[in-house]
Design a protein that fits this description.
mainly beta; about 500 residues; single chain; about 40% strand; globular
Length: about 500
């Protein structure tokens, strides 16, 4: 695929909902809760956001609907015997766990900081996970982390891994604990690189042939933490964070699309408003759930071995004690459309793509304005200067599952009236903290799916300080914490 339009282009979705409940029925029948929610969404133009772990769409409830819009009735329906929290924000209905003042005793928390052993400081983007489990998180830009896990995991192995470093392992403690972790550089000597040389075109063809055995053939339900930040001239001006559910179709189903359901989140902003232009990032979690280069086939050769990219062997690296081939790629032609250059890291044993780093080529970034900027004004002159991405996959039971997506986009904006220039930098980050195979009942319906034109910050309300106690998230660094503190004043 030459243009990779999934990164920014909006899509048109047709919402299909059951019409069986559009009128009140004289005889009350028991029907799945999901059908009632779909009918309420259609009748009153509501969007439902909820935690799939505590609200099951297949639970049976009465089919009789109230004659008019009734918040108390909807609250009673959704809160149920588990006394869930139901919040109305405009046309959005958010359902989640109730939030008492302390973290549930069923969870244990381990926190701390991961440092470079050579004393160079905290290490960002270190994978922190339970070996053999789907549960995990990541360090922030300062190397700090918090991981919450059920007591049934006590005694299992906690792994810290990062590209180019020797992994460290610890036993999960019985009680809340703090860890200081130091990772050493993994040295690879030149003779090893020479011995491991392989033809990059042949290697990429083997990656294509083994996709079916390396990636899931069944759909998965992912729980993910999503954060997007906007900086104006190196100062944070807006931060939005959310937990989302993602329905990831089979990697063998090329026509099925990911669906994203918002669970709950928070936002913060500095006292200084964006002075030049109001930035709105469209469809954040929706688009980032689809930035899956393996599933989309981006940068890979087709089944016949033909590719729009030239492959370059760049040596080897190590991640989580696995030897990885480093394969660079660049477009064969870069005269029109959008093309990228970057590097894939491929597991030596399985031939699976483990991670990808890529960015728009200089020629493509000059052509990218119509893709990156949806609305503009004659008053402003906008010029993209950077579009860069990172993807990573996590091993699980002999296969690989999407683990992390990070995107950075920078634009230079010139206000012609004020003769003022600003550099706007946005960073969006999706971290999959848990996942499991999805059955048919867990499929996210169109009526509750995150829409491609949603602006995340507009979906968020007041910050609940106890919300994150149930979830694994990327801890905010000091600058981000300051944004939220200012927002609470």
């Amino acid at each position: 695929m030459a243009n990779h339009s999934w990164l920014w282009a909006l899509s048109l979705w047709i919402t299909l909902v059951p019409f069986s409940l559009l009128r009140a029925q004289e005889a009350e029948e028991l029907v799945p809760l999901g059908e009632v929610m779909d009918s309420l969404a259609l009748r009153y133009d509501l969007d439902f956001a909820y935690d799939a772990a505590v609200l099951r769409r297949d639970s049976l409830v009465s089919s009789a609907l109230p004659e008019g819009f009734d918040k108390q009735w909807i609250t009673a329906l959704l809160s149920g015997p588990r006394n869930l929290e139901v919040v109305f924000m405009g046309q959005q209905v958010i359902v989640g766990r109730s939030t008492p003042g302390s973290r549930p005793s069923a969870l244990v928390e381990v926190s701390g900081r991961v440092m470079a052993a050579d004393g160079s400081g905290g290490l960002p983007m270190v994978n922190v996970g339970v070996e053999g489990r789907a549960l995990g998180t990541s360090t922030n830009d300062e190397g700090r982390f918090v991981l919450r896990y059920p007591r049934s995991f006590i005694g299992e192995t906690l792994v810290f891994s990062s590209l180019g470093f020797v992994s460290e392992r610890f036993s999960l403690p019985q009680n809340d604990s703090a860890l200081q972790v130091a990772l050493k550089d993994y040295s690879i000597h030149l003779p090893e690189v020479q011995v491991l040389y392989t033809d990059p075109d042949q290697l990429m063809r083997s990656v294509r042939r083994r996709l079916a055995q390396n990636y899931p053939s069944e759909p998965f339900l992912l729980t993910a933490f999503f954060r997007e930040t906007i900086r104006q001239d190196d100062e944070y001006v807006e931060v939005s964070e959310a937990v989302v559910d993602i329905y990831k179709p089979s990697y063998h189903s090329g026509f099925a699309s990911e669906r994203v359901r918002f669970v709950k989140g928070r936002k913060g902003a500095t006292a200084r408003d964006m002075e030049v232009v109001q930035f709105k990032l469209l469809g954040g979690p929706f688009h980032f759930a689809q930035v899956d280069v393996v599933r989309n086939g981006d940068f890979l050769p087709d089944k016949e071995g033909v590719s729009a990219y030239r492959y370059l062997y760049k040596g080897v690296d190590v991640d989580n004690n696995r030897m990885l081939y480093r394969i660079g790629f660049e477009p064969l032609s870069d005269e029109e459309g959008l093309f990228y250059r970057g590097e894939l890291r491929i597991d030596k044993e399985s031939r699976a793509v483990v991670s990808v780093d890529f960015e728009l080529t200089p020629a493509s970034i000059r052509r990218s304005r119509s893709y990156l900027v949806r609305r503009d004004s004659r008053r402003f002159r906008t010029r993209p200067v950077l579009a860069r991405y990172h993807l990573a996959y996590r091993p699980w039971k002999g296969q690989w599952v999407l683990s992390r997506v990070r995107g950075e986009v920078s634009l230079r904006v010139n206000d012609r009236d004020r003769r003022q220039r600003s550099l706007f930098a946005t960073v969006s980050e999706l971290l999959v903290s848990d996942f499991a195979p999805a059955d048919g009942r867990q499929r996210i319906s169109w009526s509750e799916a995150y829409r491609p034109d949603y602006v995340l910050s507009e979906q968020l309300g007041a910050f609940d300080p106890h919300f994150w106690q149930f979830y694994n998230v990327v801890e905010p660094d000091e600058d981000l914490r300051r944004v939220f503190q200012e927002g609470e004043q």
